[in-house]
Each structure stands twice: as C-alpha cells, then as structure tokens.
TrEMBL record:
Protein name: Enamine deaminase RidA
Domain of life: Bacteria
A molecular function (GO) term: deaminase activity
Pfam families: Ribonuc_L-PSP (PF01042)
Family: Belongs to the RutC family.
GO cellular component terms, semicolon-separated: cytosol
Record organism: Aliidongia dinghuensis
Length: 130
C-alpha cells in the first residue's frame, strides 16, 4: 500500500510529495538514472525534448516490470542548469500526466556526456498480486 504524507502544517509542495509511505506485501523496482537518449542512441537538443525522451525511457523500464508512473514513490532529478527547471517541470508533468512522488532536485555541473541536460532516477513499488 502506498500512502502520501503531506503534513497540513507544512508548506504544500507543488510538484512532489513530502513523503510516500510504503507498507504491505510489495515489489520494489530501483530504476537507474535515465537520460534523454532516444532509442537510436541520439540525444535531442533542448530540455523539453530530453525530458520527454527520458520519461519515455522510464516508462519503458516501468512497463517491463508491469508498472507505470503511478508506481513511482521517489525520484531524484539532476539538472545541469537552474534556468531549465520550469521547462523541465512542464515537460515532466506532461509526460507523467501530473502524477507526483517524493522527489529531490539537485543542480550539478554536468553529466557524463556534455550535451545531456537532465537525468532522473526513480524507485517504484507495486503491491504483489496487483
């Protein structure tokens, strides 16, 4: 079972949850950091295109495990430029249908390829038998 924890006496998070509690008989999937690389190995230009590509990659890994974005309980986002946050957030909301999780955003100086602008890793949980 997944329970959202957003205390009423704390600032309301806009694009994430303060906490996500997992209990019961569950399967856990740890997703490696996904980047905006297309299936043909190319990297599209721009934060929106890279974000759409990386969420398509996340979706494919989730589907392989019989899960979807609603099963994600935690994400860690690595952005190379703070100016890209609004465009990333809009593309993420579009890609996930607005589904939220607990989330951490970290600004970094770069990723393993200089043209990469964003990477997202995730943890997903699904109740056994669901």
């Amino acid at each position: 079972m997944i329970t959202i924890r957003n205390p009423k006496d704390r600032p309301a998070p806009e694009a994430y949850h303060h906490g996500v509690e997992v209990s019961g008989n569950n399967r856990t999937l740890y997703l490696a950091g996904q980047i905006g690389m297309l299936p043909d190995g190319t990297i599209p230009e721009g934060i929106e295109a890279q974000t759409r590509a990386l969420y398509a990659n996340l979706k494919a890994v989730l589907a392989e495990a019989g899960m979807d974005f609603s099963n994600i309980v935690k994400t860690t986002i690595f952005l190379t430029d703070p100016k890209n946050r609004p465009a990333f957030s809009a593309a993420r909301t579009e890609a996930t249908g607005g589904i939220k999780s607990a989330s951490t955003l970290v600004y970094i100086s770069g990723l393993f390829l200089p043209e990469l602008l964003v990477e997202v890793e995730a943890i997903a949980v699904k109740e056994v038998g669901a």
